[in-house]
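ugh ok fine here u go
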Amino acid sequence: MMKIEQRLTELAPGIKVLHGEKIFSPVNPNGYYIYDCNTLIAEAEDRSLVDLIDPGFYRRNDEQFEEKRKFLEGLNIRNIYLTHRHFDHFSIMNVLKYFGKAYAYPITDEAIQYHPGFTTGHINFFDVMKTYFDIDPALLRHYQTEFIDEGEEKIGRYKFQIIPTPGHSPDSITFYQPELKLAVVGDLIVAFKRKNGDEIIKAGTLRPQGSNCFDLFRSLEKLLPLEIEILIPGHGFPLIGKEKVEKMKKNLPQMFYNVVKEYLIARNQTERFGFKK
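structure:
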């Protein structure tokens, strides 16, 4: 990751990415892994101040997460922005200090009910949040955020365009900086590498509660006209370089196909992707 981080610093002064690490899932500890999200750190003109996008995951008394917490606590954090309100993108806010505000795209009480854990198999997600992450389950509702709407927002020293990109989550947004040709897409895109070095770039996961494959198609298509040379996915490695981003765009039909497969797999579930039976 060091080469990617160095390249990012060259292409986007004042922008850093805290790469999400791979960990065992506390929810499925029998061999399943999860990834902490990627956190974007944007320096303000006053370089002592930073804004964060997706501060990420936190689990109390876990060495890896305590190290991340200490690093972030060493920053003078102004505002926090969320690509969407899934706990792996915001839960460390519960222990972070920031003197500004936290912002997320508007979401209705009806839409928020889909969030993981309200009906996620045998798992009571409220219990998981309290037991594994020491997070007040009340934060699963509105997460103490202000609303940020479509338009422009100054984050760090740059003006970002706010683009609604629902599908994975109804409140998902992309932060796009046209001069840097930088897009922070949340879980619209994820990118991983296998042990053999193969790159896996795919659309964000659809969840049985509230994800919408048709919205996801339309949101992926919004990436096509954007000039992007730096793409920060929600999880996994950043795509640095126009050729990598263009290759990803050419793979959108395969991403659509994989999304449809997920949709069909879920057809016999109590809740289908995007609507109830």
